[in-house]
User: Fold these one by one.
Assistant:
Number 1:
Amino acid sequence: MVNRKELNPERSPQAAYGARLRSLREKRGWNQEELAERLEYSSQHISAVETARKPPTLPFSRKADVVFGTAGSTNSLEREWRDLRHGNLLEGFTEFVGYEGRAVEIRLYEIGIIPGLLQTPQYARALADAALQRGAITPEQAAERVSFLAERQALLERERPPMVFLVLDESCIRRPIGSQGIMNAQLERLVEFAARPNTVLQVAPFDIGERRHLDLPTTLLTLSDRSVMCYAESQTQGHLDREIASVVPVLTAYHQLQAEALSQTASVSMINQLRKGIL
């Protein structure tokens, strides 16, 4: 083949994406012009993505998945794009986000900070800036974390949003993040969240003591086929558990925690009192 450029997928994540795109194309016997016509892009664009001269985009990846029949699969180009774009995130997190976007029910438990799905941009920026000051991330990664949250939070605004159950350890609403204004706006966001028809917000107060059935931040996702998976993080990586034998005990513990937590009415009252400086 004339002017065929050899690809080295180990050179970079972007090069690996390009090599994968070429492999999928050639398996179907298509040249770049034929794929370009199907994707409604130019053949020059296809060539640039394959040779890592141009980064892929989310719309491009989604179109390519439809054309190649890989949409929604574990080896989709969209997933590879997310791994490429969010390489600074915890290992395992991008896989979790893919399932989170398709969940019909989300159960969250958090300790210390407001979970990402409910963070205001200013609250998220304060956390990212703190990580930047510690030298844990770069300025580019800090900006990426904030923008990525906006993408994730879009699932709460879709036409048929998931049912979201949120249990916050009391430390989440008492721990100051950023300025007083940032914290007040974040607490207001929680009150607005609780008023939605597809949400339940509860605070697990300090005085439940040893009856706090979960000791780590936990997320449980229920998919449309009613399968349930559990996601939890360590300092260095995230773990997505699909084994029913280990997921069911976590789901049971979550329900037990809900029983010990304040009602939504009492939880919102506590948050409003904090906003007014009464507590």
Number 2:
Amino acid sequence: MGDLLQYFREHSTPAGISRIQFEIIPRLLELFPGRISLFQIGRSSREIEVLTFDEVLRRCDNSAFLARFGHHRTLFNILQFSSSYARAAISALILQLNREGRARFAGEVQAGDVILNLGGAWSHQHFGRSIAELKHDFGVRFAVLIHDVLPLTHRQFVAARFAPFFDRWFDGMTRVWDLVLTPSHSTARALREQLELRGRAVPPIRRIRFGSGFCLPQHSLRECARTHVLYVSTIEIRKNHRLLFDIWKQMISDYGAARVPELVFAGKFGWQIDDLKRDLQATRFLDGKIRVVENLDDAELAALYRGSYFTVYPSFCEGWGLPVGESLHFGRYCIASDATSLPEVGAGFVDHHAPADIKAARRLIEAALFSPGHLDAKEAAIRESYVPRSWRETAGEIVAVISDTLGER
């Protein structure tokens, strides 16, 4: 749980990986009561804290902070930045002073058990070494979900400061993993290629199929008036928001602003997008035709999906592409790039374009906006034939794959 807890010390709303963890973990606990235990590792394998899921939820719950400051961007960012350091220091102190943690862990674990990491522990400086020590001391095996290897295969789209952390983590993983899970065939292929390129042994690699959507109270599922086209993603160079900016600018010029709906970017600003930010500011966000919304809770995000005509996802590369599945889950057609894993998510209900092909992307967007009956036909196909996969099924598949590959203890 360490990487998940760290993420929520620094952020208030889930991104892709943390969203996936929060969908899978409670289903594992529901499906296999008494078989799943949660813990986090501190600076070394000597610092361990066994956790209940209620404790995890409490530490990850930023709803009060989000409700109070979430819509004041500058103040929210300042307070979140300062509080993350204090919370990290407190967490580290708790792990250091928790003398009973490793003893409790030792009392629960048995030889042959499997440590499973579903997140991204690359910020943990000694994660690989800690796992190696736990394997040696307790006779456990280690399985890890590799969401992507983009920092190795698409380094130009990754923040420079992040790459060394990932390199170190990946090298550590190659020394300790017994089983690798991936969400897509694309990621599995890329992983094998990177291991062969580095002369490393290839472990058992098994694809597990992700679920779609997220749980909401029933009253949050009502229909909304449709007003916009939606892109759910951190605003960073890899996600290719520039392509959409250029298309919307062209369409406003060709059709007039009245005929072009609002384009909503749901996500925080990230890295390597200074030129995009300058153009957004210079054009006053295309005179209001582009809107950026951050720090949304799940109900607000669901309302954006339901209030969209359709969604877009022109990313240059992905390990999976969770918002594509979310779009289909909410019954909304999606236009996405054909890069890496994205064709696997769409399952035939999504139309694709090359990420740099602005003409092809514009043709698909214009057809959805202006061709009579086109969008209705796409949505009818989703309603009639799309079968969403549940996160409960994903959790069951993970345990089945671990048992089949590593054997029951």
Number 3:
Amino acid sequence: MNENRPVQKLKLRYKLFYVLSVVALGVLLCANFSIIYTLVVTPPEDPASVMKSVYIVMVVGFFILAAQALLIFTRFIPMLGKEAAALEEMNEQIEQLSVYDDLTKVYNRHKFEDVVRRELENVRRYSHPLSGIMFDIDDFKVINEANGYRAGDKLLASLAQFVSGKLRNSDYVFRWRGGKFIILAPHTDIEKAAIVAEKLRQIVGHKLFGGKIRMTLSLGVIQGAEDDSMETFLHRIQSALTGAKSQGKNCVVVSRS
């Protein structure tokens, strides 16, 4: 309440000044009308001196109008600034909603499509290596049923942020669906990506999430090829993950084909 008092006083001063300026303009208009009316009805012996009064009243009126314009301008510009800031913040929120997964706060599938197309183009044009890792929480349905779906959501969010913290700034993490995620690692060949995947498998397997939930990951690793499209890249990385699941889960399958 105390912080708002100076603002309220300033607003009151603005209003008071504006009302007084309007009243003053009204008085000046009436005075000007009276002087001009007098000039027309009963012309004085020295009309030039009377016209000086008219000019003086007009100048004072212009000054009051200028003060009103300045008042409105100083009030209007900050309002525009606030609206612009609010609009910018809204645009940022919309952009975040369009590229980030709401639950895990990592990139979503729409962002994946943009990034993988761009990075595959770099593979074709510049022969830059690009590796992908798809991982899935083993028996995630069982974890949900045992701990509740709310705990499962928290687990997904914690896992996404935990994995993101273990990667380079140049790497990307995407929520695919359910307990599945994809990592894109530009400028990384398949051997290095396999090492990253194995490290993730081990550190996640040894961590307690939420103080009580332990889980394992199955991971599939591939390297982007020059003739890869987004569809073939996805097909190969999903096949690698399926291979990890079929080998008993909690393992890494590296597909070099």
Number 4:
Amino acid sequence: MLAQRTLKSLTRAIGVGVHSGQRVELTLKPAPVDTGIVFRRVDLPQVVEIPVSATAVCDTRLATALSPGGDPGAPKVKTVEHLMSACSGLGIDNLIVDITGEEVPILDGSAASFVFLLQSAGIELQSAPKRFLRVKKTVEVRDGEGKRLMWARLEPFEGYKLTFEIDFDHPAVSQTGQHVVFDMASGQYKREIARARTFGFTKDVEMMRSRGLGLGGSMDNVVVVDDHKVLNVGGLRYDDEFVKHKMLDAIGDMYMVGHPLLAAYSAFKSGHGLNNLLLRALLADPSAYEIVSFDDASKAPAGFADLAPAW
């Protein structure tokens, strides 16, 4: 049987929210089978539980935010995509995330710190089959026209492969790779994707801060780009770090569906909002997907039965 996974022990991290700038503590805890990933706002007078699902997404401006049932007026947890990406990359099915504020700490701006935390806690196999969402027919969403066109698509594929393309007319970005293809079966998520950091442009800083955003951003957790170049000492971690971070985000956004996908995801200039619309379009058509498990792990697509090695 290809089994569900949770943590062996709990682990903690303290950091700041990239937008709020506020200190927050995160505690990652094992969870029983079929729990899924559940965020818990433990700073409130009564603990509020927010189970992850595509319909729990309540805001997608600059980050993905969740609330109970997607209610925009309910307590939220924001900037969940990097932690969700790490959970997807390591195949974590069940996890309790206690948080003392409304924004997941940005840590180093990538998913690598979350991968380290999860692997440090240890990953445990559970006595229930892992359930995949297998895409049975192509689903696509599009937005805009001409130079403003963006799209995202899910197609049938017996595995999980992602293709992402960005199109930034900017000297520092256009001289890097803007197209990337990654197959989760390679087992290289930690090495090839997880270390890609979020990025921002100096020209946008004043506007963001006037709206109460980006207050916790710094060169410790953001790739900062001026009109011509990357300002961070040491430059980029990957030659194509910009597009790899967008793929890292997409992996996290796609995991909001509540199950690992058996699908080929491809996108052009997509973001959190379009990624969530894609999941909602998929779920709106029951004939487009099915939930499957593998009693014989050897019959699962390559790579899915392997536990990621220790960090």
